[in-house]
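Hi Y.,

Following your request, here is the sequence exactly as I used it, all 159 residues.
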Amino acid sequence: MTTLHDFNATSIDGQEVDLSAYDGKVVLVVNTASQCGFTPQYAGLQDLHEKYADQGLVVVGFPCDQFANQEPGGEDEIASFCERNYGVTFPMMAKVDVNGDDAHPVFDWLRKEQRGLLGGKIKWNFTKFLVGRDGTVLKRFAPQTKPENLGKDIEKALA
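Below is the corresponding structure, written out as tokens. Let me know if you'd prefer a different format.
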């Protein structure tokens, strides 16, 4: 059975990340964008990171420019924006596609594991996937679901 721990990704600063490093952690995977109506959710994601990191939560952001060109910048620009405007300290990965032929393998897998309203496709920025300590997908959340409304699901996954 495939889990999150079977994948690799590139960090926003260009380092290869083996996602097996998150084995035993609860992971919230989010496709992000800096110029989206949902961009203020970065603050809520950072709050979740700060509140639950000691209990084993890792928030992982994957910038994506597939929706209305809302993440046009390069990795340095994205990292600077997130840190400057939202104090983001959780792991950010390099920009990826989340749908289509060039979708990152993590998102191909996430979409198959938890189908959304549009079948397997991700409909917009800030779609969130909650992954359990064993690397399996527990739940998918729509872009409009605010991070502050995820506490109960995160706490259940951490328990």
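The longest strand covers residues 26-32.

Thanks again,
Q.
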